[in-house]
Design goal:
- The chain is an alpha/beta fold.
- Helix content is about 40%, strand content about 15%.
- It has ten helices and 13 strands.
- Helix 6 packs across helix 10.
- Bound molecules: nicotinamide-adenine-dinucleotide.
- Nicotinamide-adenine-dinucleotide (NAD) binds next to helix 1, helix 4, strand 5 and strand 7.
- Pfam families: Epimerase.
């Protein structure tokens, strides 16, 4: 596999995926409308080609497939990627996440591209009693975003059944790391780092004992590449995999770790519970680890240190992150 199309390749996760592909000397096509992504995050290598295109514009997207009829695989990350905006504008969320995904699948079918990676989310699970959450748990999304991500999954499975598309559906836990923007509820780590760096009081919703599964972005990028290039050891099964650490970390612990690494004291501001917030969540990653050669490599401490270091020296220019 030589030529890969990454939708959303200027975004937080997408830019790390592109970096990892470039490191493996692949030719990378990036389709992104820069709505939340940034051109400064796009790998400037000579084997990367950027297309400013909206995935809801099928004709615009088709230009890429026409120009590059030898695409070997598609990594589909472009999305309305947050829960709260989907509550404000569910139609907009559905248009990008469902209609946009169908456009990508249709073009894969037409241009006979075989391998497909679909970015889904732990948001499809909603609140679950049994932890850690396994892939066979009944879904119960709590936001239009969770619904649209799940609808995308079902389209992917339908195209897999109907046509010659070999897909993997990856449900990411809470991803963190360099280049994440602060204006996201998933980006609590980025928000805390910024607050601590500015000497502001970090704000905690609820009692801070709620837990999440925080996975470093480079471990997510390596999971995506493993799933793109490898075949699962158990073939023919359901193509859904959790991408997570399998460990839960409370918001309080997170803040304590961050302040210890930054050697900075803090006095959290407790802000009361947010409606709809889940108390505890972490995802079982055994299915991904047993089917592919992947495992998460980055400890929370190392990932947090890298995120802090990036925030401390962050500028607008593309910066390679080791
Ligand atoms: N960050 C997380 O914790 C997390 C967790 C679960 C799932 N995900 C999923 O992973 C994927 C990437 O998320 P992210 O955190 O990097 O978000 P992001 O917002 O940083 O990246 C999304 C990218 O898609 C682009 N985009 C948005 N709408 C588009 C459109 N209509 N046409 C073309 N490009 C468009 C944006 O400009 C951006 O570059 C998304 O599919 C998201 O749902 C993320």
């Amino acid at each position: 596999m030589k030529k890969i199309l990454v939708t959303g390749g200027a975004g937080f996760i997408g830019s790390h995926v592109v970096d990892a592909l470039v490191e493996q000397e692949k030719t990378v096509l990036i389709a992104d409308n820069l709505s939340t992504g940034r051109s400064a995050h796009v790998n400037p290598g000579e084997n990367t080609h950027f297309f400013d295109v909206d995935i809801t514009d099928r004709d615009g997207l088709e230009q890429i497939f026409r120009q590059h009829h030898d695409i070997d695989g598609v990594i589909h990350l472009a999305a309305q990627s947050k829960a709260s905006p989907s509550l404000e504008a569910p139609g907009h969320d559905a248009n990008i996440n469902i209609h946009g995904t169908v456009n990508v699948l249709e073009l894969m079918k037409t241009y006979e591209v075989g391998r497909f990676i679909y970015a889904s989310s732990a948001a499809v699970y909603g609140d679950q009693e049994t932890l850690p959450i396994t892939e066979d748990a009944a879904v119960g999304p709590l936001s239009p975003y969770g619904v649209s991500k799940y609808a995308g999954e079902e389209y992917v499975k339908a195209y897999q059944r109907l046509y010659d598309i070999d897909a993997r559906i990856l449900r990411f836990a809470n991803v963190y790391g360099p280049r994440q923007s602060v204006d996201t509820e998933a980006g609590v780590i980025t928000i805390f780092v910024e607050q601590l760096l500015n000497g502001d009081q970090p704000g905690i919703y609820g009692d801070g004992k709620q837990t999440r599964d925080f996975i470093y972005v480079k471990d997510v990028a390596s999971a995506i590449l493993c799933c793109l290039f490898e075949a699962p050891s158990e073939s023919g099964g359901d193509p859904v995999y959790n991408v997570s650490t399998g460990q839960e970390t409370s918001i309080e612990t997170l803040l304590r770790e961050l302040s210890a690494i930054m050697d900075q004291s803090y006095h959290p501001l407790y802000m009361g519970e947010r409606a709809g917030d889940i108390e505890k969540s972490y995802l079982d990653n055994r299915k991904l680890r047993t089917n592919f050669t992947w495992k998460p490599e980055t400890s929370l401490e190392d990932g947090l240190a890298a995120t802090i270091a990036h925030a401390q020296r962050s500028g607008d220019l593309y910066e390679k992150i080791d």
